[in-house]
Amino acid sequence: MTLDTATLPTDLFIGGAWRASTSGQRIDVLDPATESVIASVADATVDDARAAVDAADAAARGWAATPPRQRSEILRKCHELMIRDAEKLAALISLENGKALGDARGEVAYAAEFFRWFAEEAVRINGDISVAPGGASRIIVQYQPVGIALLITPWNFPAAMATRKIAPALAAGCTCVLKPATETPLTAYAIAQLLAEAGVPDGVVNVLTTSTAGRVSNAVLDDPRVRKLSFTGSTEVGRVLLRKAADRVINCSMELGGNAPFVVFDDADIEAAVEGAMIAKMRNGGEACTAANRFYVQRGAAAEFSRLLTGRMAALVTDDGLKPGTQCGPLVNAEAVRKVVELVDDAVAKGATLLTGGKRLDRPGHFFPPTVLADVPPDAQLLSEEIFGPVAPIVVFDGEDEAVELANATEYGLVAYLYTGDLARGLRVSERVEAGMIALNRGIVSDPAAPFGGVKQSGLGREGAHHGMLEFMEAKYISTNW
């Protein structure tokens, strides 16, 4: 479809109103496929951030007191409106993020589902009542909204990462300030527009874009009315935010980096494993924290797996995400391309064999082709760093213990992928691998009904499932007797 960017909201959304930043400054939003300017958005200042917290505070008591069924119905309406506008939103995501339109459509459906799931969860805020073991009192536990939440989202899934935080916050009765990435702010503003149409009261959700993320985020976190931080992004930035949140002991949820292993045993269905690898690696062009980053293949299956994966990767059409037939769009910006080039060149220099791709495409835009590397040495940087691009490094292993050791040889622990024809082995290895999520004979784990999150330095807390709403609530214990 043709998207009229002139009709898109581009100002700050504070207290239910669209407003320019107090500085009057703007931030250009670029098309990764052409490097041309799509639009410019307001560049929020510290004063704007304080105004957003004021708006969230003004709405907080009323929203917390809103009956759960009413909050549920508003969230259900948000789901309906996202589905209604699915094609427009998908085109917008593809335009500012670069991902292929098919991937963008999948993201919109996934993002909308968080509104439907948490519409259902909003009426299930159940407490507990029990008799104390000694019999002297009753123990009553109820759950209350944690308070105003700062939500910080990345550019790789601009719709889904926003709704995965907004929906549980609203279901729990919290108001919030959303700070989306400056690479992809237009999607966040489009969602804000839908929230208002769905009946979300003024001030319940506020949206700020800023070129001074540290200063603006710090101003919000310094405000004593703010009691929650939910962040999705790099582990490096997560550490900084955790240190800042410690100043006021703010409740934190962190969905951080990944370095996902994709383990294929000899007894696996190799064609199914390759199909799963294409999903795990190439969803969003590899720009996902859940993307398969390291492919460990048992020696007896390595040749066939490498041949089939190389054929599939080489056949992908790399082009502007909005063009029909595109399967791999551009990376989000020049820095993303630079990093991928550096990682691939390092691996090749250390002895890896390039099976397909490997060189930046000679054309405008931030394009890097789907790439497969074999014989990757253990000291290659791309085995220890999050690649965030369409690159699949293959390493051969011999036994189960070695596979587990290789999979766990990272500071991250978000997700792992396992392929085997032996269910007992699959479950045994699943228990041994240090990851918050395991995809066993599947190429994807994400589901709004499942608890998404990692261990080690991949994060704190969970998003999705009932757990996701509880992240925005505090348990209150009342001791009494009768």
From TrEMBL:
Keyword Oxidoreductase among UniProt keywords: yes
Name assigned to this protein: Succinate-semialdehyde dehydrogenase [NADP(+)] GabD
Pfam families in UniProt: Aldedh (PF00171)
Single Gene Ontology BP annotation: gamma-aminobutyric acid catabolic process
Entry-linked CDD domains: ALDH_F5_SSADH_GabD
Gene Ontology MF terms in the entry: succinate-semialdehyde dehydrogenase (NAD+) activity; succinate-semialdehyde dehydrogenase (NADP+) activity
Organism: Pigmentiphaga humi
Chain ranges passing through the membrane: none
Record's keyword terms, sorted: Oxidoreductase
Domain annotation Aldehyde dehydrogenase: ranges: 18-478
EC primary class: oxidoreductase
Active-site residues from the entry: E255
Keyword DNA damage in annotation: no
Entry similarity comment: Belongs to the aldehyde dehydrogenase family.
Gene3D superfamilies: Aldehyde Dehydrogenase, Chain A, domain 1 (3.40.605.10), Aldehyde Dehydrogenase, Chain A, domain 2 (3.40.309.10)
Assigned EC number: 1.2.1.79
Coiled coil regions in record: none
